[in-house]
Amino acid sequence: MTGELILFFVLALIAVTTAVGMLVSKNAVYAALYLVLNFATVAIFYLMLGSPFIALSQVTVYGGAIMVLFLFVIMLLGAENIQAEITLQKAWPAIVLTVALLGLMIWMAATQVPVVGLSAESTLADAAPQPLAFSLFSTYLLPFEITSFLLLVAMIGAIVLTKQDKKGSGK
Amino acid sequence: METANLYFNLVPWIVYFPIIGLLLNLTIGKKLNENGIGAIAVSASAAAFVVAVLQAYSIGIHHEAVSVKVADWIHIGELALDWTFRVDTLSVTMMLVVSGVGTLIHIYAIGYMKEDVRFHHDEPRFRRFFVFLTLFITMMMVLVSGDSYMMLFVGWEGVGLSSFLLIGFWYDFDTLGRPSFANSNAAKKAFITNRVGDFGFLMAAFLMFWQFQSTNFDNVFAAVAHAEPWVILWITISLLVGVAGKSAQIPLYIWLPDAMAGPTPVSALIHAATMVTAGVYLVTRSAPIFTLSHDAQYITATVGALTALFAATIAVGQYDIKKVLAYSTISQLGFMVAAVGMGAFAAGMFHLITHAFFKALLFLSAGSVILGMERGHHHLAHHGHHGKGHEEVFDPGDMRNMGGLRKQMPVTFWLYMIGTVALAGLFPFAGFWSKDEILADAFHVFPHVYWVLSAAAFLTAFYMGRQVWMVFFGKPRHEVAHHAEESPLIMTAPLMVLAFLSLFGGALNLPGLHTLTSWLEHTIAIHPGEFNVQVALVSTVIALVAIFLSWLLYMKKPLEAGQPDPLKKMLGFVYTGMENKWFVDEGYKFLIIDRYTDLAKFFAQVVDWDFWHEWFHNSVIAAGFVWLTKFLANPIDLGIVDNISRVLAGSIQYSANNLRKLQNGFVRSYALSVMLGVVAIIGYLLIK
Amino acid sequence: MIPVNYYLILSGVLFSAGAVGVLIRRNSLVIFMSIELMLNAANLAFVAFAKMHSANPAVVHNGQIFVFFVMTVAAAEVAVGLALIVAIFRKKQSIDVDQLNQLKG
Known about the structure:
The complex is a heterotrimer of chains A (171), B (688) and C (105).
Chain A: H1 3-24, H2 28-48, H3 52-77, H4 88-111, E1 117-118, H5 123-126, H6 129-138, H7 141-162
Helix pairs in contact in A: 1-2, 2-3
Chain B: H1 13-27, H2 34-62, E1 66-76, E2 79-87, H3 89-119, H4 125-145, H5 149-167, H6 182-212, H7 217-224, H8 229-246, H9 255-258, H10 264-273, H11 278-285, H12 287-290, H13 294-316, H14 321-341, H15 345-382, H16 405-408, H17 410-424, H18 430-445, H19 447-472, H20 479-482, H21 489-504, H22 515-520, H23 533-554, H24 566-571, H25 573-579, H26 584-659, H27 667-687
Antiparallel strand pairs in B: 1-2
Chain C: E1 2-3, H1 4-24, H2 28-52, H3 62-92
Helix pairs in contact in C: 1-2, 2-3
């Protein structure tokens, strides 16, 4: 067992644990914090897979922006104490289905994908952000621009949705 | 020879110029005064004449026929029709005549229509007249310049339409200016009679397409040499029906006298000089077909000759100045058709040209006479000379009201005299040469035609003499004739040009020189007729005798007012026949129109009403429909259709009640369904 | 040298965890977080596949670029989604999704 593999299993354990923690925590703030830890772990996976740009995007976008937004909303609504009533009687069809899906996915990953070893060492130099940026601004320029438009629309949409509608309060 | 530096590519303008003039008058003409409208129309016609002269110059150098394609027209399967103009000596001759005479008549018409619209108290109609007249020039140009029978047919129908429009120009009046349907009826008569002829033309064109897969002149003429005799005969006979309609031959001539309801320039341009000669042009154009069938030539020549004589006899008995000329036109067209029928194409075309000159001259002078009488009538009415004739409607065209007009209208008188002598065929006027050429050819080819035509020539000289004596000599038989006034220069100037042409037009094809014959020989095969001194002498003597006879009858003892025609006593019932056009119109009415009305009545009452409405509709359709409705209503609709829909409605209601429960509004249960779908699809993909 | 299959299995486990969260939790904020977790799981698989095919220059960056776009869309989605939750909370004083069943048939 190499150090690399040990690192992988440790991180995997943290990831799964935080995911389940988010799932079962009754307080929404704890759930959010579990998720932040989960995202950080995934970012380390990205680094191991030779994608430093994506790893940093993960930290800034997910950890920095999205989760902060979540926490803001939780605080704003005072929703941290809402009881998460998980009743297993009602949840068992969902759990059965999900376990079935998980089984399928594991079976697929184990049998349908060729076993290729992924090494973390040699790739850091190749995975510099420049070629990625070059590709992003040449081949994928149009989707990139469309994405910027999408963000603009989302921003406007968020403003419109959260605007206090004084006249419409009687609805 | 090289055609590049010649003017053949200008030939479409022969049609474009009149169209431009027409559109100008149609659009901006409302803002122009009468002189402006007239100027546009005259320029359009004159520009077409200039183009025609350029074409004549070009064809004079090049000689060979040239086709100028303008656009595709119809391309369906084997049928390939294009808008193609054909320039050869024959079409150029027609272009020159049409645009030349047309321009002169346009000029004349400015003066004529100015007064005519005032007599009818309808000045705005002036513009419409010129639009129609230019439309006629356009269509006539299409007719003479087309490269195929179908393009010729477009022009053929187009001139028929303009003729219809112009005959019925004063559609709400009769010829004497009273409110009536008479003029529009005359227009309809012309149009419908022509339709019979057009049917013949179309039959010929269809036959050509059926047999030769083309209606293009060159293709047809090339193919016709190998065609079977019955095909040639039927084509020529069908064409002859078309000719009889358009060129007013027996039995379809009846529309032309009524066509005099149109204003006089129209009578001169369309119903004397150009449109009615389209039939002659058609036969000449189809010379390669006609020369292949002796029977067709015989029939055509005989029809022409009989028409010439028959119409001439009627002309003797007419009192209306324009009616005499109308029957004279039919008679002269008979001469031409007889000529081209017996293969004397050059003689026929020669007579067509000279006739266009002197008959246009005569008609326009007659118009001048009529307007002179109108002015006299107007003058009297305004100066309070209430003679006994003024309470009743005055007919300015009735020769019995005229007399002694040479003093009041000297210019018109001299012009009319030139036209008369040219028509009578006296040496050295144009009519002498052309008529003589026809007679000389007939003498050799079809002797019976020669005799009939000679008789017609005798009558021609006689009725023209009668007309001149009655109109211009003797004493005025009506107060109005005392006060008749001469026409203005704008009307007489074109007449002088025409008079000049009537005098010297014979020079086109003098015996021995054969200018026109050799000119036309580039296009059609012609055997030049020889000048025959004997024939010429005989016809001159005939003409002189006829004029002398008319002098005896109408000049020695001039007609008094109210006195019957001296011929009436001498000829008795024969003259009554001439006077009444041999009752042909009445005969047609009895034989065709009344029978047609009877048939229509029979169809309306017996077939349509009794059989169709009463029996078929009520007994068959209505009863059957009632039975069918009952059948459909009871067993089908109530029994089957309703139950199907009840079952459908019930099952849908039942399933809706149950499916409704699935829509429980909980987003998590929907998500669960999505999950189920995902698992199912992935499972299926893996198991597959 | 970690086999790509390990990453895929990890990705599947995380995805399943997210799916369970969506299906059994009633707090809409936690449901939303679970969705983010599912997106992350998918991203992980993308990056792993990108690494697996990094020898092929034609597709070397496609996986990463796709992840980049997914992140962008996720950001937009969070902005709009949280705005929606705020709006719903104002209306109903609750973020329990089981209270939102007006569309019941």
